[in-house]
């Protein structure tokens, strides 16, 4: 049986778990992004739903500018709750959020809804796991992209500016900007194309932070790999930070600079990706890593083992 999780500060400079080798070492996961002070986003929060135990309990993490941070945890661990708390979207669920979430120097929890609305889709964006459910089936792709652009457009922008922005966003996610494509409705797209449309909408205004909540879990393995490559390219080319939320360990390993392990509402381990996979320190992280599927042995290797065993 695992012991109760102990909260870990998920920040560069605090790696692993308390008492483990390297905990508190400097330069945690600094490859590929610059450790900044202050961080792009800093959160220290507890979240409770009415009549229930806290979903997040003293969770603490930081995301640096240009960083891809992976958040790993099983279903019900509070991953999506964290994303909704950052976006200020827990009010309808009557959740109580305690603590502080600082983004670009401003406290998100103290903002009014109007102020938060000016950030969502512009400097803070979200990509969900079900693209065909997230897009409006009654509207053409052009209309939905135009609405995303108008939400934060410059007052002096023209219709031509809108068309340019849409085509640029589609090009950035490797989709055609042709009139034929823009006239389509979501049900006429593949799941992979629909997910790229959602990503195009999310990055149209060049957000500082993209929250990708299980954004590849509904995709086949080939399309998943393509979307992961897309996230990685957007991070490199635009400097956009990404909070990549998933329960899929291989996908996290492919694109994240650091990984935070969430268990029972707390981050129990945090560190550079290579370190977490090579030397997991917390028992829960060790269980996660041991659950990774192993490739079946080649027939000749299995035969060799059998012959060796038979000769003993």
Descriptive overview:
By secondary structure, the chain is α/β, with parallel strands linked by helices. It folds into 2 domains: 9-123 and 208-310, 3-Layer(aba) Sandwich (Rossmann fold); 132-204, no CATH class. It has 12 helices and 11 strands. It has helices at 79-87, 113-119, 131-134, 141-150, 159-172, 179-182, 191-203, 221-238, 249-255, 273-278, 283-290, 299-310; strands spanning 9-10, 41-48, 56-63, 68-72, 96-103, 106-107, 124-127, 209-213, 241-246, 258-263, 266-272. Strands 7-8-9-4-10-11 form a 6-stranded mixed β-sheet, with helices on both faces. Strands 1-3-2-5-6 form a 5-stranded mixed β-sheet, covered by helices on one side. The protein is globular.
Descriptors:
11 strands; six-stranded mixed beta sheet; five-stranded mixed beta sheet; Rossmann fold; alpha/beta; globular; 36% helix; 312 residues; 20% strand; 2 domains
Provide the fold topology.
Layout: E1 9-10, E2 41-48, E3 56-63, E4 68-72, H1 79-87, E5 96-103, E6 106-107, H2 113-119, E7 124-127, H3 131-134, H4 141-150, H5 159-172, H6 179-182, H7 191-203, E8 209-213, H8 221-238, E9 241-246, H9 249-255, E10 258-263, E11 266-272, H10 273-278, H11 283-290, H12 299-310
Parallel strand pairs: 1-3, 4-9, 4-10, 7-8, 8-9
Antiparallel strand pairs: 2-3, 2-5, 5-6, 10-11
Helix pairs in contact: 4-5, 4-7, 5-7
